[in-house]
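Sorry to interrupt, but I need a hand with the structure work. Go ahead and set the record down below:
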Amino acid sequence: LSSPLLSSLSDSAIVNGVYWSEALNKVFVDNFERDPSLIWQYFGSAKGFFRQYPAWPELSPSGRVRDKQGTFSQTK
């Protein structure tokens, strides 16, 4: 399939945007540490990609499960 939007964006524009938005990871973690009631945080780019924190509802980036108090326990 082709679309004007897809053909106007280069792969490097998306890759550069993903790298640029990596700084949001720290913002998302800091936000969660200040307010553990946050369930998800999102960033959507006009270039067509998005970031979500955490990547899975119950898992941290290290693979640990978040409990109801916002702390983590190791999964098997």
Summary: The two ends are 42 Å apart (CA to CA). The CA atoms of residues 7 and 75 lie 43 Å apart. The chain has one domain: 4-73. Residues 69-76 have pLDDT under 50 and may be disordered.
